[in-house]
Design goal:
This protein is of the alpha+beta class. The chain contains 5 helices and 7 strands; from the N terminus they run ααβαβββββαβα.
């Protein structure tokens, strides 16, 4: 039986209430868990619900947009053009939707952070330990990438040239913002559907991440009617 978006959002509130120990903690958990709704939007929430067999809820241990922005800014400013080694950056999980009352471990996860590869990285070519992926240019500041990882699992990415204040000018090209989605809840859905909702999440993230070059993240992929 398919659940409505309203029931999904009510689960968010219930999860938050279960995780709270103080009023301050409650505010923090509610902010964390509402990030999924901010990233996916109404249509994304409905998409997850309508393509998942069984009830879903939001994991309470996801990070906040503000914390993710601080980490991205710190790592972007740490980059130096003289560095030849691959950066050891970490990213932030901003949303994890899980299948409740199930031991399968199925989930949908959205993460954002500093990319360890430059914006013009040749994703569409086979690389050591990384099979070739499909690249969809969106505009001069945004592109979408998807394909299988070394274990055969589908991965979806969005890359945004996001200049951080105080970072070197080349940072937006060499250390772009990377968003990724992994999904074992709605994995039978098309790549286009995943990329559509990932692109929506990038719009929400860019609004908060204070990119100095004001990249334009559209509401839809090229050759696709906007919502």
């Amino acid at each position: 039986m398919r659940k409505t978006a309203a029931s999904f959002l009510s689960l968010i509130v219930l999860f938050g209430a279960g995780a709270c120990s103080t009023d301050n903690d409650g505010k923090q958990e509610t902010a964390r868990e509402s990030t999924c709704e901010k990233l996916l939007g109404k249509s994304g929430v409905e998409w997850v619900k309508n393509n998942t067999a069984g009830e879903t809820g939001v994991s309470a241990d996801s990070d906040t947009l503000e914390n993710a922005r601080s980490l991205f800014h710190k790592q972007a400013r740490s980059w130096a053009s003289s560095t030849e080694e691959v950066p050891n950056f970490s990213n932030s999980e901003l949303c994890r939707v899980v299948k409740t009352q199930s031991s399968s471990g199925a989930s949908l996860s959205i993460r954002y952070g500093a990319s360890v590869v430059p914006f013009d990285h040749p994703f569409d070519q086979d690389m050591p330990f990384a099979p070739a992926r499909t690249v969809t240019p969106v505009n001069t500041d945004v592109k979408l990438v998807h394909g299988k990882d070394s274990k055969g699992k589908s991965k979806y990415y969005v890359y945004v040239r996001c200049q951080v204040e105080g970072a070197l000018p080349a940072q937006k090209d060499e250390v772009p913002l990377e968003g990724s989605m992994t999904d074992s809840l709605t994995e039978k859905e098309s790549a286009d559907a995943h990329l559509k909702h990932l692109l929506h999440s990038a719009r929400a993230v860019v609004r908060v991440f204070q990119c100095q070059n004001t990249p334009k993240v559209p509401t839809s992929k090229p050759n696709e009617a906007p919502e």
